[in-house]
Each structure stands twice: as structure tokens, then as C-alpha cells.
Amino acid sequence: MYKIAFDVMGSDNGSAVAIEAASKFIKSRKDLYLVFVGDEDQIKTSLEKFPIDESRFEILATKEFIDMNGSIMDIRRKKDSSMVRALETLKDKKVDAMITGGNSAAFIAGSHFILGELNGISRPGFMPTLPTAVNNKLTLLLDVGANLEADVEDIIGYAKMANIYAKNVLKIENPLIAQLNIGEEKSKGTLLQKEIYKELELDENINFFGNLESRDILAGKVDIIVTDGYTGNMCLKAFEGASKILMTEIKSQLYKTIFTKLKALTLKKSFDNVSKKFDYKNHSGAILLGVEGIAFKAHGSSDVKSFEATLRMTCDAVENDVLNKIKKELN
Q1: Domain-by-domain residue ranges, the chain?
Q2: Which CATH class is domain 1-121+290-331?
Q3: Residue 256 phi/psi, 5° resolution?
Q4: 314: number of CA atoms within 13 Å, CB side?
Q5: pLDDT at site 278
Q6: Residue 210, by phi and psi: left (phi above 0), alpha (psi -120 to 50) or beta?
Q7: Cβ-contact 38, 65 below 8 angstroms
Q8: What number is the average pLDDT over the span 320-325?
Q9: What is the pTM of this model?
């Protein structure tokens, strides 16, 4: 039985959305036990509407939570917050993993102070899973915002950890890894990118593709893309925004007149398939690679679908023992 601490406070849409997602998801996982962390009254009220078998969960009641306007100092100030308590249960090995949809900066700070980093890792990285144009192929991108800056050792660490994750969770035998850059040529980029290129190229345990431009992130050319958190975060949010605007614009055009509506009916299945494939909500969770525990961050604006995706990804990471395999490789 896998045990996951779920901080249901702090996200934009409130605790009820998180509880609803858990209620739906747990029906498909007989091996899952949840520890709901947060305001007891809110959790119980939500469970009345979205019931879960009492043998499948427990409530860890807290009096505080860190909202989206909070800061990293709240990790110290709000010791009874749901995020801090969820991280502590993971630190104390009372659970196998934890999830939060709360403040990202506070989550990163809390992971640093409470969990600590793995041996050889100084800066952990956020790693989401992205859909691609290739059917049934996903791409891992990191870092997407845990650290704005990164040095050569950080990027090499990201590549090594993501390589292990891709092999064990995505079941890719020999993951192809690229460095995000402004051009494909070896000579492109700053001195940092050039040095990273040399190191990745020399590493016999890395199947190095070379440089990859941002326009090819969703093309499915590689399995893993490494970069600094500043660049990665902008790429991720550009993809999310473009995806949402594009689908909205397509729907607007298709339902503009009675004639386009009739034509749209014949293409509905095709458009639904594309929409489902590139809907970031189906892959919205991001693991914080490099800390002493399996810790996932859901999007702050997560809806039911997004939280279900994060729960699924967390279960996959636990089931495949990804943390211990990363630690073994790094050591």
C-alpha cells in the first residue's frame, strides 16, 4: 500500500477541488492510501460531497496554510501549515511521497530546509512531463523554475536524474537527452552552454542528442531536455498559454456560423483527440528532483483533472522506486 500526503490547502481553487480529484482517482488505485493535510472542517465537508472509503485515508489537521501570496519565510513562521506538515511526514518516512498545489517558492524552501538535497545535488529542479507531436511519446523538461540560475554541475545532475526517471517511470531503454539552446550548432550559446555541451558529450552514461531549439520542444525529437530554471519556466508557460489560446481560437472559428458548426461536427473527434493530446492538464504535475523524498508540485490553478494527473504521476514515481534508484546512481 502506497501512502501519499496530500496538502489540499493553498491552491487557487480551494481544498474541495483537491478532495474531488482524490475521490475520483483513488477508485482506480487499490494500492493507494491518502493522508489529507489541512483544515479538518474543510476536508470533512468536502468528503461529505466526494466520499472516500474511510479505510483509504486519514486527516492530518493543521491550523495554518501558506497561500499564493506567501513567502519562503512562511516555512519558518507557519510551522503548523499544511505544506510544512506534509513535508515533515515525508521527512519522517511516515508516507512515501507528498503533493502540494501551494506556493512554489515556499515549497522549494521547505523542501530544502526540511527534506534536504541528495548527495551531489546542490540545486534541485522542477521536472514536468510534456506531450509531443509523436503519438504516445512524452518529453521531460527541467528545470522549469526551482532555480533561476544553474551551473555546469547542476545541469549535469539534472540530466543524470532525469535519465534514471525516464528509464524507470517512462520505461525508455536509452533516453535521448538534449540541451535547450538558441541553435543546434555546438558553438551556439554562452560559455556556460558550451561547457555543458562538452560535459554531456563526454559522459558515457548519457545518450546525448546535442542542442535543441525551443521550437522543437514538443516535436518529440528527444526524451529529456535540460536547461536552467529561468529559461525552462518561460518555455513551459509559453507552451501552456499558446495551447490554451490556440484551442480557444479554433473553437471560436468552428462555431462562428451555422455552416462552420455543421462542418465542425464531422471533425469533432479529430479536434477532441488533438485537444486531449496537448492539454497540459493531463500532465500538470512536476516532481522536484534532487531532494531527499518524492515531492510533487501541482499547478497552483489546478482543477480536478490536473490534480488527478499529479496523483497519477506521484504513484508512478513511488511504484517504480525512483528516489532510491536516483540515489544509488548518484552515489
Answers
A1: 1-121+290-331
A2: alpha beta
A3: -75, -45
A4: 34
A5: 65
A6: left
A7: yes
A8: 93
A9: 0.89
